[in-house]
């Protein structure tokens, strides 16, 4: 019997990546990246040049199809694999990335009648122009004591489906009325492959406020929000919500010809990028926190029951692994903070010394920071350069560094920033653990864990937990491919469930990061100070950060 394979397609913010995976061991046989032709549309619409307002972020849906048409044939050609041996395909996507479609499933933005209206286009996950709508949703939900609110840490985001849909209704009612449905981009792409649009439990749960037992928030809530929204979930958001690992359908003949796969190939329901990484590192049971680390961190954890945890982004049944409650939390800036320091605050002599040593500036600073003992810098920072996602859920908070002197060196500041992000993760770990959702081990995937051993050692020391690192550099795509193999089923050479797939395909590095006792002791003292600052600035004792932002806005 010939080897069998699956393809995972990872849709990011700037590009899409297809990875061909060997189902016997999870090895990555081939990969190919296609940059989006239209990239992020945040200044003006294509062709018409119509200017966009602040905080808009759109995309062109046909860019997603181009990824399939270029990257899938590319990995097939590179590998020389017979298309008949590719038994499944799965995708993961940024979220909430949503678009209005007509009854035929076509995006309104590709139609001449609507293409000049910005609201007909894909609203990317980082489209923040629906903040006014999000604020009103949160205010009303709090007033009414809506019981779904605690599942999302007390607030929903402007990035999510409801706020974006309401913004369309408020600013472009003709687009709202014309649209047959609002769908997540991940579900739309799957619909293009199979001819059948279904909603996946991951994006519906985390970004659409859907609950497996209770469905969406009540019609009464939406009516109180805006009478025109009363029937939103029965009209624009209608459609079956199916659990991850389900088979959305089979690859249609016309799409098969366009992307170089066999018609009838099993297609899994869509998924969210970070969430797909969880089985990609082999986590399919509770007690193991997965950190998808990059510019920010998404923290994901499995539980056996639904608990309320301060500041979590959501808890969704079947949201990550079928059969478990999937918890999500996050830090809104991590790698971005380190990048800020290198780009905006490093003196010329550091750049010169790094160049002389033949090192990247991050590598140079990390090497110098690694020569310091825990606590030696005398510095402490709050990691709020882009607000606080968890546990405070407050975008108006800002960063701070305490303990600076005339002798402070750049690498001491750099280490303090590394430590600050670790303290932020510790705060999230403690929130879960103290609310009955156990965290016993940490797993890390993404760009940062692969590059920075010092950062991972600091995280192990601050959290006092062992950290395992993903072996794959393309963990979300690997997870997506796993779900594609599950959609195909064991009879076709795949797997009957994601647990079996992860057991066979997921890989972590042999090297792990274990807490160093003397460092743990020092970081316990620093974390206690971090907590004091965290609550002083973050819980209302001193709103100086918000007052400073207000003064700044007055002067702009």
What would you note in describing this structure?
The protein has 556 residues and is of the alpha/beta class. It folds into two domains: 305 residues, ATPase, nucleotide binding domain (Nucleotidyltransferase, domain 5); 231 residues, Nucleotidyltransferase, domain 5, CATH 3.30.420. Helices cover 39% and strands 19% of the residues. It is built from 19 helices and 22 strands. Strands 1, 2, 3, 5, 11, 12 and 13 form a seven-stranded mixed beta sheet that branches. A hairpin with a 3-residue loop joins strand 1 and strand 2. Helix 9 packs across helix 16 and helix 11 crosses helix 12. The longest helix is centred in the C-terminal third of the chain and has 25 residues. The chain is globular. The N and C termini lie far apart (68 Å). The mean pLDDT is 96.
